[in-house]
Design a protein that fits this description.
Strand content of chain A: 15-25%
Shape of chain A: globular
Number of strands of chain A: 9
Order of helices and strands of chain A: HHHHEEHHEHEEEHEHEE
Radius of gyration of chain A: 24 Å
CATH class of the largest domain in chain A: Alpha Beta
Largest interface: A-B, 56 and 56 residues
Distance between the termini of chain A: 51 Å
Strand order of the largest sheet of chain A: 3-4-5-6-7-9-8
Oligomer: homodimer
CATH architecture of the largest domain in chain A: 3-Layer(aba) Sandwich
Number of helices of chain A: 9
Structural class of chain A: alpha+beta
DNA sequence: CATGATATCTGACTTAGGTCAGATATATTC
DNA sequence: GAATATATCTGACCTAAGTCAGATATCATG
């Protein structure tokens, strides 16, 4: 009854029997799924026909027909790409935008009703995030970003919130040595976020100092993404960035309440060292020499 | 970024882009999905053609063609129903069973690899259970069963395990007043389990005494199914059964550590009463008069 | 046993989705 | 500027899936 394989297959069945409904929600407006998907992708800002075809994995002949069909309905217009007249650019007309919005409203309403019927929506959403992250694990990208950007700020906010949950005496950023954003950007350092279909699932900062030393800061992996090896991927990205910046020694501080992080460091070539700062929160210090 | 609707839609996208793979896993053996689904359903024991058609929601013409195609491949045989020669019964041949097993192996392997790649499979499985329960909430059935059967025993095991996690000093069934199975079966009482696609998600027992009084025992809802109103449905079923058995007064005992249960009782017409037994675990006692 | 209901089958037809081989126009490279 | 590559389009063709109107055989009922 609790056989893991049976549980996964039960999940698959539940999902596939609902997916009919998912698909037909795209129908319901008198348009086949294929055409609706193209309209939807254009509405979400994909205008280049070649990119569309690639994204939706469609044959060029089929794509062409779908575009023609949308044009005949008066929902899109196409024109040649200004830099390359072989390529075409598709754009929604006013009617097309209205139709796209109608799909969006339908889709949002469906999502909304799923949540509204549940009396513990936060638990359900967390479960959905976790499943989505696991299903899409091969599509999680690591991007180097400005630590002041929206994704980075979101990750840092979640990171601080988690620290204050996990530290017995809470966590207050103001009391910690908050790294300057410029220290975590080229040419001194770097900041990475892990993105799954637009949702930030983790981050790590590399804070460069003068000379050949740098610190790893703000390593965080969203609860929904734990177990996918994202911490290691983030650390690898930070190390690679450090090497590119000719850094030879990395250091970091952490707290013994963060067991999984500590375990990761010990498993990946870090060695414990003496305290090297007076930040009140960390009680464990590590170093790694890059060769 | 944390907009609930966006999170649900992200989940839908993740799932639909994997469902292609789910579908094509049924292919991969050179047989279209429709036919493969029929083979699969027959393999899982559905032999009556009318039942198959109903289960798979297929048109009778289409069903007939699928059966013919499987017969031509030598995977099934059909014969008239012994009691009604209009109906037909489909059965796998030896070759059909081999083919069915091949699909099963493929499907199990796929599920297995999903789990194997995750380093916290239990968390992922719990999330999948929760999502599956929420998606299939309208298909959760309440069945009256023998409390000694497999489903009931599973629920009771989970129930005891949860009590020992939640009670500060643990829980030992042997010390509790374990109701006799016969007290929770007709004509004295009843036992219900909630089933979602075969997985037990909750249970409740009605323990009849001599006279017009009965007790509610062993109300449990699986963590994956919380928030779906299953506790209430189970209690309603128990009440209805009690009325049928001409019971006029229901009692129950519970523990203040089980907040959500207490809340449910208070909201559904139960009133707190004095202790009515010497079981060491409960510290709260309720009564409800049935009209 | 006549009548209507039911289960399955068959043939004719439709739609959605997709493949593939050129045709056409434009860009890139030598 | 010729040869080649690329992006899109068109026509011909195919499969999967599904709908629908009878045909046929059997069952249930008065």
């Amino acid at each position: 009854m609790l056989d893991p394989i049976a549980r996964v297959r039960r999940f698959n069945r539940a999902v596939t029997s609902e997916v009919g409904a998912l698909d037909t929600s795209f129908l319901g407006r008198g348009r086949p799924l294929g055409v609706a998907r193209v309209l939807n992708a254009i509405g979400h800002g994909r205008s280049d026909v070649a990119e569309l075809r690639d994204y939706l994995a469609l044959d060029s002949g089929l794509m062409s027909r779908f575009l023609r069909s949308l044009e005949e309905e008066g929902l899109i217009t196409t024109k040649p790409h200004p830099d390359d007249a072989r390529r075409r650019i598709a754009k929604l007309t006013a009617a097309g935008r209205r139709e796209f919005e109608a799909y969006e409203t339908l889709s949002n309403g469906q999502a909304q009703s799923m949540i509204a019927r549940h009396s513990q929506p936060e638990a359900l959403l967390a479960a959905m995030d976790m499943v989505a992250a696991a299903l899409g694990r091969d599509r999680i990208s690591l991007d180097e970003v400005d630590p002041r950007g929206a994704e980075a700020r979101y990750c840092l906010g979640e990171y601080y919130a988690e620290l204050s949950r996990r530290f017995a005496r809470g966590f207050d950023v103001a009391l910690s040595r908050d790294p300057d954003a410029l220290d975590m950007m080229a040419p001194r350092g770097a900041f990475f976020v892990a993105l799954s279909d637009g949702l930030p699932l983790g981050c790590v900062g590399l804070k460069g100092h003068a000379g050949a030393t740098a610190e790893i800061k703000r390593l965080w992996v969203a609860p929904a993404a734990r177990g996918l090896g994202l911490g290691r991927r983030l650390m690898d990205a930070a190390e690679t960035a450090a090497r590119k910046l000719s850094i030879t020694t990395l250091r970091l501080d952490t707290n013994s309440a963060l067991g999984e992080a500590q375990q990761l460091y010990r498993r990946t070539g870090w060695t414990e060292i003496e305290r090297f700062n007076d930040d009140p929160y960390p009680d464990l210090f590590f170093e790694k020499r890059l060769s």
